[in-house]
Amino acid sequence: MMKRIIFALLLVPSIAAAQALPNISTLNVVYNTRKATVKPEGDLKAQIDAVDKEIASANRLGKTGEVRRQIARGMALLGGTPWTPALDFQNSLALRSDRTIADSTVTYALRLEQIYSPAIELTPALTAKVSLRKRTPPAPGSMTPSPTTLVKELGAFDGISRDLRESPFAMELDVSGVDDGAYVIETQVMDATTAVATTTLGVVLHKGLDARLRTLETAAGSVVAGARADVTYPADYIRNVNRGRIGLGTFNVGTEITTAEAVLATAKGGKDPFKGRTGDFERHYVLKGANEVMPYRVYVPKAYNPTAGAPLVIALHGLGANEDSFFDSYAKLPPQLAEKHGFLLAAPLGYRVDGFYGSNLMSAGDAASRRRVEYSEKDVLEVLRIMKATYKVDESRIYLIGHSMGAIGTWALGAKYADTWAALVPFSGVGSPALAERMKGIPQFVVHGDNDPTVNVSGSRNMVAALKKAGADVTYVEVVGGNHTDVVVPNLPQAFEFLARQHKAPTAVTQ
């Protein structure tokens, strides 16, 4: 039953599509949320049931390309579009490169590939027309892609195989002479004179990128140890994006490099560039084992006193979001409320945007999924450790909050490290009722909308019932008509008021 509960906060306002295809977790959430919204009946339900069987079979056999194909088919049907051979071919195509983020002065290598074998008959004479295009930023809150405008024609290519799984088509493109920024490389596949499909790849081009990154990595050795990761973060992140380990997300190349250069300049002479700093800023560290630089966002209230100390809130984002979510979304309320109550606020990435913070509720069980879940938990714990080492934290007042996937993590880590937390605040989440007994001593403020199409309200109802049965102090707010996201902002002030009243009882000392 638990595996069938679909959840996640989908926050993916990326400035360009990532090199890596959207991860399967995100695709599943989009698809299942769409099903919950459309509520298919009759013939459509029968078609969707057939799609779901194909998805289950492909998942069981580890055929991720087929999973993507069937999800695309299901999304088309739910949108009222017939699944045709042409649409099948369209969704089979993918553009890949070794560099999503690239120096525009260097020749750009690109490959046209297929992620599955489509059912379509084509003549041998396939060609491709490639262009560099600029996408207009979408309207605030819009999930609909905006139209693109032509920036530069990149060439026409003949001799493209009909089987791009066996023979991917390689291209070398001249992307020089354009402004720094995010672009879309568009490839139109032609069967003789007829366009049969179009596929795109989001890229970020930056003149002189390679030299600036080399300078940062070389100079990082002269910086105090605690700030080195803040200097090397842009190079590390870009390297991982280009290797296909992570998506581009909201990473702004120019801003991140400029910020790292400013840290480097401030750190000259062995200075700690973050000592005594208050307000909102981002920090970084190297996660051992993963050997990657992890970002985390911090808010230090103006009244912070390193002698008196302060409570600490750890905030966990939803699926597809990142460490910026609790700072830049939710009407930017969390840092304002942290300032009001004198709380330190820290938001980890959780290793990946789909890390799940140690929870196995939706884990596929394969080695890659287990590793992602494990390091997601480690990232949260390491950020907690660093915050306690850097600031004077009142250990009787450490709180854990989260939305959607972050709420799942809140209950998972709340149960596993129950002695750490003075209170928990999960929004729109789900957990394992079997873990309620472990959390019976932790006060909790739980919020969910009864019209949530992404995480069914039963996720919170079942947890609250189990927690109350175990004797936990639970305040439950169920918002009539509330959906997955609109329940957060109105209830954040009350949630922080709740946190301000919670103190963990001191541990008894035996004589």
Summarize the structure.
With 511 residues, the chain is α/β, with parallel strands linked by helices. 34% of the residues lie in helices and 24% in strands.
Q: If you had to describe this structure to a student in words, what would you say it looks like?
A:
The protein is an alpha/beta fold and 511 residues long. The chain folds into four domains: 7-91, no CATH class; 94-205, Immunoglobulin-like, CATH 2.60.40.2550; 209-275, no CATH class; 279-500, Rossmann fold (3-Layer(aba) Sandwich), CATH 3.40.50.1820. Helices cover 34% and strands 24% of the residues. α1 runs parallel beside α3, α2 packs antiparallel against α3 (64-78) and α5 packs across α6. The two termini are 48 Å apart. 41% of the residues are buried.
Give the C-level CATH assignment of the largest domain: Alpha Beta
Mean pLDDT over the residues: 91
Q: Which architecture name of the largest domain does CATH use?
A: 3-Layer(aba) Sandwich
The ordered H/E elements are HHHHEEEEEEEEHHHEEEHHEHEHEEHEH
The CATH topology annotation of the largest domain reads as Rossmann fold
In terms of DSSP E residues, the strand content is 15-25%
Total number of helical segments? 13
Structural class: alpha/beta
> What is the 3D form?
globular
Q: List unreliable stretches of 5+ residues.
A: 1-19
**Spatial gap, N to C terminus:** 48 Å
